[in-house]
Each structure stands twice: as C-alpha cells, then as structure tokens.
Sequence to fold (175 residues):
Amino acid sequence: MNSRNVVLCVAVSLDGYIEGPNGEYDWCFTDQDYGMTAFLDRIDSILIGRKSYELMMNPNEAASEYSFPEFKKYVFSTTLTSVGEGAELVCGDVKTQIDLLKNQPGKDFWLFGGADLTRSFIEEGLIDELILAVHPILLGAGKPLFSQLNERIKFNLLDSKTYSTGLVSLTYQLA
Fold:
C-alpha cells in the first residue's frame, strides 16, 4: 500500500458546480477556516492541470492569489514544454506517473484541478480521498465537478462536519 494519498479537496455548490457560469467562485465561503489549515498541513504537493496552472501563475488572474508557493506543483500537460520554479512538468501516462510519485517519500498530494485532470484521475482510480466542501447555494449553471464519467464510482463516507454557515464538509474514501 502506498503511504501517500491523492486527495481531491474542493468547494462545490449544492447542485454540483465548482464554478459559476462565468468561471466565478465568489460564492465560496471565506469567513472561517473550514478545516483548510489542517488539510494544508497534511500535504506537500499540488497536482494541477495546464489551464489551472496557467491561471494560478498569472498575476492578472484572481486565481493567482491561490498560487501556494510553499508547495511543489506537478503540472500535467501534453502541450507545455516547461514550467516555472517550484513546479515539475508531468507527461505521459497519468497512472504510471502517479504510481511513481506516490512511492516517493512525502506527505499527501492535493489534486487541485482542473476538471479534465480530475476526470482522468477519477476514471483511473487515482483519487484516494475526496473532501467536498458543500456550500448551501444553487448556482444553476457553471462547471460541474464531475461530468461524462465512463462508469459509476463508489466511495465510502469517512467523516462529515457541519458548520454554522450551513457549509457541510464531507470526506470520502474510494470504496
């Protein structure tokens, strides 16, 4: 058994969206910690797709405020030829690459995004743990957390925590 886990930790609306119709995430609660400090303490690396990485590294984008310079970034891309300092470009078979990374010493990995990379990971059975911060809001449209999966994937509930704002944090493990 590998000692490092791949954890998808993400904010999601009640209707299953991770972004609003215009890519916005201003609906995410930021008034308290919601367990993020404890989560960030257990990871040392971020797994990220090309589009999310480019947004994160662009100082003109709102996402750049979440660049997490303290964490090593593994950027999954078939088109990039290089990445910045503190990042490593990952090409080739995703499952093979993750198996290699999980067998290196370190803390858990945060699967940060985006939607295509998340779908690849879920379909390959590479997500060990799923932490959903379910916000009490219906967006009506936007980018769904999961779409066009090839098959049903079962998870077991490990933990749930309810906050005074109505946010519910759900932690699942791949069944």
